[in-house]
């Protein structure tokens, strides 16, 4: 397993400042959140020089990046001109930052089946245009009207339609628990065949609180125990850096059998 942090932990900061702050904290893997008008959406208006500065900052400090694509206006499940325009900008960002993966929500469509087909077709286009080393990762989302990708079954269908080893699933623990509280562990295991990583955050099953492990009621122990020997990325997507650090260190201290003190954030 490997450990990463989302810039969502510093959502009030402009994206460059957030990246700098997380690097100073010692993080070597950072998922850049491309949402928020005063945060990640700023990336979409950056020129080559500005993006090169962030890329150099990562390289100079041995940091790798993932890229969570924007949510508002980006709708692979029902592709429109705005979706195409946002993707064009995001492709340039992904290339400039040499990201390990791009992550996105499938979007919305009145027809789930049509939405899954549209998202799969657009994903194939994305994979053709992305550098060969870059993975494509889809994330489960909370239930909402016309939302596509609320269940792991839907994500698995998309991955199977894409039919490319570079495509995988980012399992968001908070979203999954909100949707399937009583069947949480069973729902999570459905993602295992195509699992790339986890967005780790806790809640009480009602809203997307982005808490640290133990502040909510998600049963992390059995899930992480089942994953302890798998090569997956743990992305701590909490609402503060402190909560992310506490969650990671709790994973390592409890470790479900295997300590990893060396890589703990000091």
Can you walk through the features of this model?
- The chain is built from nine helices and ten strands.
- It starts with a strand and ends in a 12-residue tail after the last helix.
- The chain has helices at 15-24, 48-60, 81-97, 112-129, 152-162, 173-179, 184-189, 220-227, 241-254; strands at residues 2-6, 29-33, 64-68, 101-105, 107-108, 135-139, 147-148, 167-172, 195-200, 233-236.
- The strands form two sheets. Strands 1-2-3-4-6-8-9-10 form an eight-stranded parallel beta barrel, surrounded by five helices. Strands 5-7 form a two-stranded antiparallel ribbon.
- It has a single domain (2-263), classed as Divalent-metal-dependent TIM barrel enzymes (TIM Barrel, Alpha-Beta Barrel).
- The protein has 266 residues and is of the alpha/beta class.
- Mean pLDDT is 95; it is low at 260-266.
- InterPro entries: IolE/XylAMocC-like, Xyl_isomerase-like_sf, Xyl_isomerase-like_TIM-brl.
- Pfam families: AP_endonuc_2.
- This is Xylose isomerase-like TIM barrel domain-containing protein.
- Residues 26-231 form the Xylose isomerase-like TIM barrel domain.
Features:
266 residues, alpha/beta, eight-stranded parallel barrel, two-stranded antiparallel sheet
List the helices and strands and how they pair.
Elements: E1 2-6, H1 15-24, E2 29-33, H2 48-60, E3 64-68, H3 81-97, E4 101-105, E5 107-108, H4 112-129, E6 135-139, E7 147-148, H5 152-162, E8 167-172, H6 173-179, H7 184-189, E9 195-200, H8 220-227, E10 233-236, H9 241-254
Parallel strand pairs: 1-2, 1-10, 2-3, 3-4, 4-6, 6-8, 8-9, 9-10
Antiparallel strand pairs: 5-7
Pfam family, one: AP_endonuc_2
Domain Xylose isomerase-like TIM barrel: 26-231
Organism: Siminovitchia terrae
């Amino acid at each position: 397993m490997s450990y990463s942090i989302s810039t969502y932990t510093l959502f009030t900061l402009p994206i460059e400042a957030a990246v700098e702050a997380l690097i100073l904290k010692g993080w070597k893997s950072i998922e850049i959140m491309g949402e928020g008008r005063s945060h990640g959406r700023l990336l979409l208006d950056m020129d080559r020089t500005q993006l090169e500065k962030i890329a150099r900052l990562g390289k100079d400090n041995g940091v790798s990046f993932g890229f969570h694509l924007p949510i508002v206006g980006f709708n692979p499940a029902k592709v429109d001109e705005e979706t195409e325009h946002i993707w064009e900008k995001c492709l340039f960002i992904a290339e400039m930052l040499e990201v390990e993966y791009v992550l996105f929500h499938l979007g919305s469509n009145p027809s789930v089946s049509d939405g899954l087909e549209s998202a799969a077709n657009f994903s194939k286009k994305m994979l053709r245009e992305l550098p060969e080393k870059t993975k494509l990762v889809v994330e489960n989302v909370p239930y909402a009207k016309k939302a596509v990708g609320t269940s792991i079954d839907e994500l698995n269908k998309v991955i199977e339609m894409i039919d490319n080893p570079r495509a995988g699933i980012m399992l968001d623990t908070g979203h999954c628990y909100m949707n399937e509280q009583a069947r949480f562990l069973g729902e999570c295991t459905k993602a295992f065949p195509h699992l790339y990583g986890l967005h780790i955050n806790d809640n009480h099953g009602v809203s997307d609180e982005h808490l640290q492990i133990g502040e909510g009621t998600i049963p992390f122990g059995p899930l992480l125990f089942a994953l302890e020997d798998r090569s997956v990325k743990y992305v701590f997507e909490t609402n503060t850096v402190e909560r992310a650090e506490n969650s990671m260190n709790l994973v390592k201290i409890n470790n479900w059998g295997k300590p990893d003190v060396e890589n703990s954030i000091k």
